[in-house]
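Job type: complex structure
Entries:
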Amino acid sequence: MRTDKSRKRFVFLCVAPATILFFLFMILPTLNVFRMSLYERGAYSPNETFVGLKNFQHLLKDTQFIRSMQNMILLVVVVTIVTFAFALVFAAILTREKIKGQNFFRIIFYIPNILSVVVISGIFSAIYKPENGMLNSIIGLFRNMSDPILWKGEKLVIPSIIIAMVWQAIGYYMVMYMASMSAVPISLYESANLDGAGRLTQFFQITIPLIWTNIRTTLTFFIISTINMAFLFVKAMTSGGPNGASDVALSYMYSQKDAGLYGYSMAIGVVIFLFSFALSACVNKATSRDPLEF
Amino acid sequence: MKRISRRNFLKVAGVGAAALSLAACGGAASSTASSTASSAATSSAVAADVTIKVAAIETGYGAEMWKKVTEAFTAETGIKVELTTDKKLEDVIGPSMQGGDYPDVIHLATGREAALTEQFIKGNLIADITDVLSMTVPGESKKVSEKIAGGFTDTSLTNPYGDGKTYLAPMFYSPCGLFYNAGFLKEKGWDVPKTWDEMWALGDKAAAEGTYLFTYPTTGYFDAFFYALMYAAGGPDFFNKATHYEEGIWDTPEAKTCFDIVAKLASYTNPITPAQANDQDFTQNQQLVLDNKALFMPNGTWIVGEMAEAPRADGFEWGMTALPAVKAGGDSYSYTWFEQAWIPAGAEHLDAAKQFVAYLYSDEACKLFAESGAIQPVLGIADDLDGDNKMFYSIYDNGAKAAMGNFAAFSAIPGVEVRTVFFDPVNSLVSGSMTEQQWIDGIKSASDQMRANIIE
């Protein structure tokens, strides 16, 4: 009995620091976001007034917020689909096929992940420069560039950000998929070969089902990281411009804090929080399958 | 509420004045006298042992001048200074201020993207420094108010609540106007336009030569431009009504003139401008003027230092002009942009901080600032300038009138800010995704909300 008790105490002491820190720095601030969304105050003002759900009512009428949410959703959907497709295909090629310089490609694909977002934004800003940027210079070989393409102009700014984000994300997800793909026993592919299944069939019938749990996890990652990354990219590439065309929800939240609306920006935070949770839950539900064993 | 009451305020002011006179007598020698912490805790002893925290934004003028000025201040008064300078000052001092730890003096102008100063104004969180004006400048015999040039402490930028009290001290002023390559205009034989009609004619001539009339670094630079334009279109009376969002003001012919000029200017703007009009790429737009790809841009005198290292067209020479008159014979205006230093109401050493603010107008400080190109708004300073600065600062001697002031402060409204409503849409006007009428409609509806929330 005594040892059991002391063991319990030992376990408790081991777990306590992490739990306390987690509570202090994760749970409390999150709860505070919800609380503050019901108040109005400036970021530096000690006074706050309770306004109930007024902040949320304003949100519904704020066209700039609606546009920033639309941009965010567009980014989440497009970046996820494109990155997912590319990462999966590259991972399949690099694990299943024997090609020269396999390791070289693995490194090349992974490099963007090591770079900080600010560096990537700098690189892409240089590529997108209207006058002597790389992209316009290359296109200039084929057509007259007296009227340069404005990659960071109002019309193209979101696609431009999407390209940068996809480029940044592919390597990471590719490595995730490669890890689980290499765990699939080769014997399965060999027997499929004997049965006459082509590479595509093998990919869809063997590879995808067997790494399904991994794919589901990464889909949640996609949603959360795209929402966060979009803010970093927008902040470092365009500051939300021109005229708010590239604002995403988090950057709009940030700018509202600067406008002296702390409570209002917390309300935006709450909406983003609930949105990402709900979306992750939906995706999780929709992709739910019985796990396959091998 | 950490704002000091009126009574406390007077007490503090008295202590400050006493400290000042004593410190002035004591001179630099008493600076490290830690032994003075005896029971005879006179105000000079308080001052001598105090360390104030000064936070200053590092702009094109560099941070070195702040170091020199704070050292000179310590030598003069014995008050030690802990200096923080940073290009993104808001990010450095913001978090600790949210935790209630304020610097004693902050030099940070309004109109920045993070709008920290505006937030302090909106939240009534700035100490009243009206009494600093009647303080004697440390080490000198003149009062602060006798040194500051006329008009600088009468504007809404220093007296944001329009109650005759000064909360922000005017710092480094710069005439704003349209900057251009004087060498290029001379080479082409083009005159600097005196009216907007001449401007459009020049724009057509430039277009024939393959260059554009106009560009702008970011839409934020339209504030000085638009203020001067409002003065040029309707004079001070119209400016005051407009900046207080008077009902129906945007339907007047004067307002229409302003909108039409900006909209027309948008059609003469180098089309790549909006794609680079953000805080990361704005120097590329400035580069357009250096490369003769655009003739004019709204800017301030700091541009010379900011673009000092940039490559430029042969024969490049900086030129600056006030905004053209609306019609022949009309007034042309140049907006006087200036920065602000202020004391947070939560500052710990209010009296020492006020001394520091007063010291910023001393001959010594002005000289140190001027060495880096930062010109304090004190009387007679323009006489000693040379080079480009002499030309810039003599703009008012050459017939341009000075425009000062800004939009009245209003308590924060979700989704409504001066910059996003008035100036950011210029990007869309240039790229053609918004019409002039849509822009005006946006201003009108936002203006109604601003009027309702104006801080009296």
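Summary: Confidence is low (pLDDT under 50) at residues 1-46 of chain B. Chain B touches chain A at residues 1-2, 94, 97-98, 100, 113-116, 118-120, 122-123, 125, 218-219, 271-272, 274-281, 284, 412, 414-415, 417, 420, 424-428, 431, 433-434 (CB under 8 Å).
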